[in-house]
């Protein structure tokens, strides 16, 4: 079902019947969708408040770690991922949606690592040129342990070829791992 049909049906469902007096409802701003792949490939609309968009993006993005379910639909074809892990100083750079999806999928599958945003650690800001900057702070987990903390900065842009759809342009993740207790 197209987003416009969902939006239209939503408003039809909430309209007052003709025989009842019409109660004034605040008008909602047009929605904006994130490129969120779902099993039925529907795209869901969300209000264009930067913090709401950031929260929704994080819910979808971090939900794709467990179980790993990243797809290229969430990313522009030319997106970039920069992953910096300290204190080892390891820096990885990945370009292209397929490479980014492959690396993000490896984090929980092979590296046995999950990221969890902190409460209050998500912020969104619409930049003057139309990009949505999303900053996330949270913890890094391995089974049974919190092994560090992270800061993630993303830039999302509206896809001009898919109406009301946001996609990831780039992701920078900085992980600070705690010293190991095993030496």
TrEMBL record:
Protein name (record): NTF2 domain-containing protein
Q: Which organism is it from?
A: Salpingoeca rosetta (strain ATCC 50818 / BSB-021)
Q: Pfam families under this entry?
A: DUF4518
Which PANTHER family does this one have? DENSE INCISORS
Which superkingdom?
Answer: Eukaryota
Segments carrying the region annotation (Disordered) are: 1-38
UniProt biased composition (Basic residues): 8-25
At the highest ranks, the source species' classification is:
Eukaryota, Choanoflagellata, Craspedida, Salpingoecidae, Salpingoeca
């Amino acid at each position: 079902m197209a987003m416009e049909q969902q939006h239209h049906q939503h408003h039809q469902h909430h309209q007052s019947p003709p025989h009842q007096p019409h109660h004034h409802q605040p008008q909602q701003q047009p929605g904006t969708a994130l490129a969120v792949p779902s099993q039925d490939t529907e795209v869901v609309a969300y209000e264009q408040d930067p913090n709401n968009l950031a929260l929704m993006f994080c819910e979808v993005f971090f939900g794709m770690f467990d179980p790993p379910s990243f797809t290229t639909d969430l990313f522009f074809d030319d997106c970039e991922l920069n992953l910096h892990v300290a204190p080892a100083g390891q820096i990885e750079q990945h370009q292209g949606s397929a490479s980014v999806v492959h690396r993000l999928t490896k984090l929980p599958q092979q590296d046995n690592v999950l990221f969890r945003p902190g409460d209050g650690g998500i912020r969104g800001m619409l930049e003057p040129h139309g990009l949505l900057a999303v900053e996330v702070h949270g913890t890094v987990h391995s089974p049974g342990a919190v092994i560090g903390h992270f800061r993630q900065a993303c830039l999302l842009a509206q896809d001009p070829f898919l109406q009301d759809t946001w996609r990831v342009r780039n992701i920078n993740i900085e992980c600070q791992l705690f010293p190991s207790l095993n030496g």
